[in-house]
Every structure is written in C-alpha cells, then in structure tokens.
Specification:
The chain starts with a strand and ends with a strand. It is α/β, with parallel strands linked by helices. Strand 1 (about 5), helix 1 (about 10-25) and strand 2 form a beta-alpha-beta unit. The chain contains six helices and five strands. The model is unreliable at about 115-120 (pLDDT under 50). The radius of gyration is 15 Å and the shape is globular. The chain has helices at about 10-25, 40-45, 50-75, 90-100, 115-120, 125-130, and strands spanning about 5, 30-40, 80-90, 105-110, 135-140. The protein has a five-stranded parallel sheet, with helices on both faces. The protein has one domain (about 5-140): HUPs (Rossmann fold, 3-Layer(aba) Sandwich). Helix 4 runs parallel beside helix 6 (about 125-130). Helix content is about 50%, strand content about 20%.
C-alpha cells in the first residue's frame, strides 16, 4: 500500500478522515493525493451572473488554500502529497483520479456538507464505494 486518494469537501467528517490517513503510514503509505472537486453543475448554474468569473476564481482559490493547509499537516507527518483542485462531476473525477493515480486505497468521509443533496442524489461516498476498483475506507461522522 503506497498511495492514498483523499477526496475532500472540507466537511467536518472529511477532516476527521485525516486521522485515518496519518495512521495508514504504519501500513506503508507514503503518498496522499489530495483532491477537491468543484461540481461543474454549480458553475453552470452561476454562468448567467455577470460576476461569474470572479466567483469561479474565488471558489477555486479558496479550495486551493484549504488544500494547502491539509497538505502542510500531512507533510509535517512525513507524507508526500499531490494537490489537485478540479472542476467536474465529483464521482466521475474521483474515479478518474483513482485510475490515473495508481492509488492503493481511497479514504473519504461518509457525509459531505450537504445532507439535503444526499437525500436526493445519493452520497458521493456511496457511489464511489460502489464504482471504484480499489479498497475504500469511509470514515463515519459522530452520531
């Protein structure tokens, strides 16, 4: 086990998954691919607004800043990191990065920021677990 893919939406349960990632070093993990996917459907909905490009850049830069903080935390633990901020459909991009990144495992939180969205669309973690080829560790939130 060498490389972990960590898709994050910066939710509390996603932050909780960092503990599991650090513990995986004892199993030989050396690298973590940090991935945040901005849902392209959100951008498509905002395109009609005149300040769309400023909002888009602000969202992407905010995601990069959040990932840099996670990167620093993992680097301080001795893990190599790769940071990716992508615009796509989250499940599709996670599965794509799984293939191209030659990952050993995917670790992600059980619930994202939008529980309402999960009721209607199904959770990203559930879809990833069903469709991916590698083992998945889903970190649950506290009840």
């Amino acid at each position: 086990m060498q490389t972990i893919l960590f898709p994050t939406d910066f939710s509390d349960v996603s932050r909780k998954a960092l503990t599991s990632i650090k513990e995986m070093q004892q199993c030989g993990v050396k690298k973590v691919i940090l991935l945040h996917v901005v849902d392209q459907r959100s951008f498509e909905a905002m395109e009609r607004y005149s300040d769309f490009h400023e909002m888009e850049q602000s969202i992407l830069e905010g995601a990069r800043e959040e990932l840099r903080a996670v990167e620093q935390e993992l680097s301080a633990s001795g893990l190599e990191t790769e940071v990716r901020v992508e615009v796509d459909i989250p499940v599709r991009k996670i599965l794509e990065v799984e293939k191209e990144g030659d990952v050993s495992m995917i670790i992600l939180g059980s619930h994202g920021k939008s529980n309402l969205e999960e009721m209607f669309l199904g959770s990203v973690s559930e879809k990833v677990a069903r469709k991916c080829k590698r083992p998945v560790l889903i970190v649950k939130r506290d009840s």
